[in-house]
Specification:
heterodimer; A: 105 residues; mainly alpha; two-stranded antiparallel ribbon; 5 helices; 2 strands; globular; B: 424 residues; FAD/NAD(P)-binding domain; five-stranded parallel beta sheet; 8 helices; 24 strands
């Protein structure tokens, strides 16, 4: 676990760059994590996914998998991959300041 | 029992979890409980045996027994298709129009295969160039396909997690490698494992060991491949991020979800049809008198028979506590334990829970073992084979397996792990 400065705030992140304490998260931090991961601008569609992920995590204690995102977030899987290249569930969780989805066990 | 209240306990699913809980409840509380198990058919499949069918190492009829014959006499067994559950009215509706009222409901209907969820997967080539071994029919058909396969690209593909027994696709690769060696065809076949995960398995320590085994055996790994569609004509897998993998014979593990009735029951399941479940008490989060066991839950541990077995103790205790108006015990710790066949008469054993990664050591006893954890051995392979009679004769009737405790810490193997773990 290491401490990094994001948007001027020191935050703790794990080895893969996921925030350790979701309560340290804010929208500026999200923008900065997004830029570091190749997303220059977070659009409304990005935010729809990020907010959905965060809300699901805060309600249920686990982040949704890509398949449930596709079914329930209002954004189809194809578009999720356009918005968050490579691994949408993982990247949206990272930008949203919540742990890596554990759907895969 | 004179004058005692008869509790109505309805159990949906007569597989591993439904059967072992029904039998234990009947033995402990048969006098005060009216226990009904519902399933759509009377064929109980020993699912760990499916892996061996495609290789001719076991025959389909050796791994199937009647469901009703695994249940104690005091348990009612009904064949019927569940249409929906009304959790507000405490009632199960069956397709034939009949209903079952319950005081406690146990959901043990497992996970179902949903090839139709993936574009192009379940078309005309299903059963020809595309197979699965996750069902009895599938495993049987794949045996014929493997026998006729002498040359080309064999691709083993996990579409998406979660799946039942997440090590089984790897075991399939190891056994396929072994069989091709025996037939003198290994050099003619390119064997590739395609997974949506970023490594061979979900648990880092085990993943490292399994990844090394795959590479020793010359099995290619394509990781982080999220299959979007299958082009049956061109025999290619396409990922959502536009990568492609060609195959001549595809062995796929389709996406899993809950059975249809879950979607037809308002408030019961999540988007994938699994039941939101408290990970320690195994009470559903949908209704206090609904409990869940096995693959049907959304708890973050493997969907595996060992998990179901270990959950059984918690479920039986908490159903009793619930009916007595006592607080539930949060006693399930995510304990899972899997034998992993690696071919050439050897197997590897892993043991973990919600908090602990699979680690080296011995099982079930720290000193005596005799089974080594996270290491290949012939004894592990023999233990895996020896498990099937125990499954029918000890586990399903609801007896404990000697030396194997339900809680992770009761597996004595881990005291040694904890000690040696200190120096890691």
């Amino acid at each position: 676990m290491t401490t990094v400065t994001l948007a001027g705030i020191p935050v703790e992140v794990d080895a893969e760059g996921f925030l350790v304490h979701e309560e340290q998260w804010n929208e500026q931090i999200a923008q900065e994590i997004a830029r570091e991961n190749g997303i220059d601008e977070l659009t409304d569609r990005h935010w729809q996914v990020i907010n959905f992920m965060r809300n699901t995590f805060l309600e249920t204690g686990s982040a949704p998998s890509i398949r449930s995102l596709g079914k329930t977030s209002g954004v189809p899987i194809k578009e999720l991959y356009e918005l968050f290249p490579k691994g949408p569930a993982k990247l949206a969780a990272k930008i949203g300041g919540i742990p890596k989805p554990r759907g895969c066990i | 029992m004179g004058g005692a209240v008869e509790h109505r306990i309805v159990i949906l699913g007569g597989g591993t979890g439904g059967t072992l809980v029904a039998n234990r409840l009947d033995r402990l509380h048969g006098d005060h409980a009216n226990i009904t198990v519902v399933d759509r058919d009377d064929a109980h499949v020993y699912q760990p045996g499916l892996l061996f069918v495609p290789f001719g190492l076991t025959r389909p009829e050796e791994i199937v027994r009647p469901r009703h014959a695994q249940l104690r006499e005091g348990v009612d067994f009904r064949i019927g298709e569940v249409r929906s559950v009304d959790i507000a009215a405490n009632r199960v509706d069956l397709d034939d129009g009949s209903t079952l009222d319950y005081d406690v409901l146990l959901i043990a209907t497992g996970a179902s295969l949903q090839p139709q969820e993936t574009e192009g997967l379940s078309g005309p080539e299903w059963g020809h160039t595309i197979h699965t071994f996750y069902s009895l029919e599938g495993a049987s058909a794949l045996r014929g396909a493997l026998e006729g396969f002498k040359k080309g690209r064999l691709v083993v593909n996990v579409i998406d997690m979660p799946i039942k027994c997440p090590v089984a696709p790897l075991e399939f690769c190891f056994l396929a490698d072994w069989q091709l060696h025996r037939r003198g065809l290994r050099d003619e076949v390119e064997l590739t494992f395609v997974t949506p995960l970023d490594e061979a398995f979900t648990k880092p320590a085990a993943s490292e060991r399994l990844g090394a085994l795959l590479s020793e055996k010359g099995i290619n790994v394509e990781s982080e491949f999220a299959t979007g569609r299958v082009d049956q004509g061109a025999r290619r897998l396409h990922s959502w991020d536009e990568r492609e993998i060609g195959y001549d014979l595809l062995v796929t593990i389709p996406v899993h979800g809950g059975p249809e009735y879950v979607g037809a029951s308002p408030g019961l399941g999540d988007a994938l049809g699994f039941i939101p479940t408290d990970r320690h008490t195994l009470q559903s989060r949908s209704a206090p008198n609904v409990f869940v066991i096995g693959d049907a839950t959304d708890v973050p541990t493997s969907k595996a028979g060992s998990v179901t077995h270990f959950e059984g103790e918690t479920v039986v205790g908490n159903i009793r506590r619930f009916l007595n108006g006592e607080p539930l015990e949060p006693s399930y710790d995510g304990h899972a334990n899997c034998f992993i066949e690696t071919g050439f008469h050897r197997a590897l054993l892993i043991d973990f829970d919600y908090e602990h990664e699979p680690l080296p050591g011995r099982f079930p006893d720290a000193q005596l073992g005799p089974l080594p954890l996270l290491a290949e051995s012939r004894l592990n392979h023999l233990a895996k084979l020896a498990f099937q009679p125990l499954y029918w004769q000890v586990l399903l009737p609801g007896h404990g397996i000697p030396g194997v405790g339900a809680p992770f810490h009761a597996s004595a193997g881990h005291s040694a792990v904890a000690r040696s773990g200190g120096s890691r």
